[in-house]
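Researcher: Can you fold this with adenosine-5'-triphosphate in place?
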Amino acid sequence: MAKKLNLRNPNKASNIAVIGLGRFGTSLALELVKSGCEVLGIDSDDRLVQASAAGLTHVVKADSTNEETLRELGIDEFDAAVVAIGSDLEASILTASLLLQLGVKQVWVKATSSAHGRILEQLGVHHVVFPEADMGRRVAHMVAGESLDYIEIAPEFVMVKISAPTSFDGQTLAKLELRKRYGVTVVATGHGDQDFKNATPETIIHKGDHLLLAGPTDMIRAFGQLS
Ligand code: ATP
């Protein structure tokens, strides 16, 4: 497979191996394909390999804990590899360790607990992700009614989608001065969830609009109390 390294963003990968085609691995692999990446899906379960064959660039039934198999697949030639094995801790850790040993440039591993994550970090895994814990936190903000969507960009800095306070009806963003008054930035607005557009000072807020906001967590939280 040809290698396409992106010099502007050395983390940007175009040839990616996804190991473990469960729900998380499959969803990730399909999204990577949509983003224009070439994706090799690997799973030890033949049924899952067959099920993913149509959507991915290549699929192979293989045991990722077998060093020889990984070598034969030329895993070190990939820009990145993602280990999406959840319940089999031993297989996850062994696979991650082999990928590092074989020199894969960017190793991403899904961790299912903080202990699992700690071991992966100690091994030197480049990116440890906690999809279940992260999603749980994100959904909590929606369930609590604070926001329609919630993404943590960095510790103490978030992006949220919320309904516009009714008191904003008919006013432009320039007039509302939200950054000056509340420390939050409106990135985009939409009528409900339709027609989302980049925000400009001339954007007029209407009742029922949704706002995409970015800002420090405490300021976004305070802003969420407005009605
Ligand atoms: P989900 O993403 O569905 O929540 P999960 O976190 O429960 O999955 P598992 O089902 O344990 O994770 O593993 C995901 C996939 O990884 C499974 O399809 C499994 O067959 C595959 N898998 C597990 N061990 C290996 C291995 N050693 N080599 C290749 N694939 C493996």
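Model: Folded with adenosine-5'-triphosphate in place. The pocket of adenosine-5'-triphosphate is lined by residues 19-25, 42-45, 48, 63-65, 84-88, 91 (CB under 6 Å).
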